[in-house]
């Protein structure tokens, strides 16, 4: 796939992202095997996210068809997600001075998804580099569902990019699944 010149990683401005959100959310639902009943709610959330400070989005196009999406924005102490992280760190006995520094200056990688059949070919990696290139934050933070022995493409990608544990086996309010919350220093190493 690396030599395939038909693969393009393209940055989307907030307006392009918002217009294309239905297609992008469909990729998310398919890649994560979620119930399509969540579609309308996720479209609304993603459109609201595009208004966050520092919003950045990239998509992967193969032969002109969107097969991947990644987006994020500057972390903010007033966002629900950071409140959740602070709760998790307190419950674990923190936050430590290093964790406080991370939460004061980070880019939240909100979503990274590649269509099944195209996963494991370096597309997520290319999107992550494009997404985080030039980000003014000192850290990137993301969450991913826990899996036994980190045995999936997502964990492999994040670990290979230098992401380390911030929280493990964490449950966000309203979700019974366990998540790993990972962080990396920016810029990412090549």
Automatic annotation (TrEMBL):
It comes from the Bacteria. InterPro entries: Acyl_CoA_acyltransferase, GNAT_dom. Transmembrane segments: none annotated. One of its GO terms (molecular function) is acyltransferase activity, transferring groups other than amino-acyl groups. Signal peptide: none annotated. This is N-acetyltransferase domain-containing protein. It comes from Corynebacterium efficiens (strain DSM 44549 / YS-314 / AJ 12310 / JCM 11189 / NBRC 100395). It holds the Pfam family Acetyltransf_1.
